[in-house]
Amino acid sequence: MEDINALIEELEEEFAKSKSGLFGKKANMEKCEELVEELKRSLPAAIQEATYILSQRDKIINQAKEMADKTLKEAEVRAEQLLSEGELIKKSEEEAEEIVENAEKKADQLFAVTRDNIDKLLKSVEDYLLQNLHVVRTNREELNSGDVLKNIQNKNKK
Q1: Of 116, 55, 97, 78, nearest to 63 (Cα)?
Q2: Domain count along the chain
Q3: CB contact set of 102 (below 8 Å; sequence gap of 6+)
Q4: Are 85 and 105 in contact (CB under 8 A)?
Q5: How many CB atoms lie within 10 A of CB 11?
Q6: Residue 154 CB-density burial (10 A; 0-12 exposed, 13-18 middle, 19+ buried)
Q7: How many CB atoms are located within 10 Å of the residue 110 CB?
Q8: What is the rounded distance in angstroms from the CA atom of residue 133 to the CA atom of residue 129?
Q9: How far apart are CA 46 and CA 154, in angstroms?
Q10: pLDDT, tens digit, 9 for 90 and up, residues 86-122
């Protein structure tokens, strides 16, 4: 994502150079085209990264469930061993409940962290797409207003 943001900034700088008055500099269209092509190549990597994080979320949730199941089974075994003694039965049940609660809390925490990380990545992708949408809209407006054609015609007259 850092590469994509750097490319976007470079493209914005190139466009910013072109806004310098009536007889000012023009944007280097070759440079802009190169930057757009680089962005196109970088975008699949960002999407791939988002997919990887989503796949990891399921893995983490499954691991948390397995850990909770394992902990629950261990608590049940321990409780059965202590069944014969009255006072120890009560204590083992409390410990088993505490272990299960802790396992559930850990699973909930892992899920929340994973959800937050995925949300941040998706927000980053959304911001990137919105920035590029703005560039595309600006280019379409320039094209539709005839400014692009006028600039080309003026260049050809010189």
Answers
A1: 55
A2: 1
A3: 71
A4: no
A5: 22
A6: exposed
A7: 17
A8: 6
A9: 40
A10: 776 787 889 999 999 999 999 999 999 999 999 999 9
Rounded to an integer, what distance in angstroms lies between the CA atom of residue 44 and that of residue 37? 12
Residue among 111, 129, 116, 134 at smallest CA distance from 57: 111
Q: Is the pTM of this model over 0.85?
A: no
Token pair of 36, please? 């757009």
- Answer for the pair 107, 65: CB distance below 8 angstroms, yes or no: yes
The amino acid that residue 16 corresponds to is: A
93, 75 in Cβ contact below 8 A?
no
Alpha-carbon distance of 73 to 90, in angstroms, equals 17
- The angle subtended at Cα 131 by Cα 143 and Cα 7, nearest 5°, is 95
Domain that holds residue 149: 2-157
Q: How many C-beta atoms surround the C-beta of residue 83 within 10 A?
A: 10
Q: How does DSSP assign 12-48, residue by residue?
A: HHHHHHTTS-TTS----HHHHHHHHHHHHHHHHHHHH
What separation in angstroms does the CA of 3 have from each of 18, 27, 41, 102?
23, 21, 11, 41
